[in-house]
Structure formats: structure tokens, C-alpha cells
Design a protein that fits this description.
This is SnoaL-like domain-containing protein. The protein is α+β, with helices and mostly antiparallel strands. The chain starts with 5 loop residues before the first helix and ends in a 19-residue tail after the last helix. 31% of the residues lie in helices and 40% in strands. A hairpin with a 2-residue loop joins strand 3 and strand 4. 21% of the residues are buried. The chain is built from 4 helices and 6 strands; from the N terminus they run ααββαββββα. It has a 6-stranded mixed sheet.
Length: 156
Amino acid sequence: MLRADSTALSTRDAVENFLARLAAGDVDGVAALFAERVDWDVPGAVEVPWLGIRATRAEVADYFATHPTYVTKEEFVVERTLVDGAEAAVSGRFRSRVIRNGAVMESWFVLQLTVLGGEITRYRFYEDSLTVARAWATTTTGADGRAQEAHSGTTD
């Protein structure tokens, strides 16, 4: 349930500032919103270099600085932001292209954030990690940019 107290407002402000700075490509501004120690995870295949765990503001800054060297953002749409006290959830969809091979990654996402003392202390980004792994691993793309090579796992 959404609470109208100052904690919810500061959480919403932090989330809105984060999204605005992210859209503007302000890496230093984005990193400044995070606590010095952060509980960060973007789960997925270990082969994908931008996925995984980070623990410090410096590592967060590195993530946002290096991510654009791997992918080109084509679309990032926030559909909904929900805030409950120190917790926030942002949902939407994105479309990006892997720079090294041209493969397209298109997915929904849910971003979970915790904001304490005006700083982001917890970050979780959930996406279709199989689509991301396939796009990263592909060596062939079709005219639409979608991966044409089957992944190495089994299919039903």
C-alpha cells in the first residue's frame, strides 16, 4: 500500500532522480544517488559482462560507465513506478542492441530499489536473462537484428 509519509516521498524522489539521470546519461549523477555500500544484483549468465553482483558506489559508477560500451539503448520505457516506504518497484520494457554483433535484446523488466537515508542501498534488475544471454552469445543475426543461432541449452 502506498504511504503518504516523508519516507515514501524521499523514495519516490530518489527513484525519479535516478531515472532522469539515467535517461540523461549522467553517470556521475546516477552513482551519487547510491550509498557507498550497496546490495546490487542483475542476475543472469556469467558470460554477459555487465550482469552480476556489485557492492560499492564505485562499482555502480563503473557499471553505468561501461554498459554503453556493450549495448546501444534503442528504447527504455517505464510503465509504472510503485513506492511503499523505503521500497520501490519500477516496471517497463526495453530494446537494446549488442554492439559487437548487432543482436537485439528486447524484454520487459522490473527494477527493485531500496532507499534509506535518501540513498539507494539495494538494486535488483530483473529481465529476460535468456534473451540477453542469447543476444550476447550470438554470432549471426537476421535482417531484424534478432539472434539466428540456437542457444547451447536444450529446448522442448
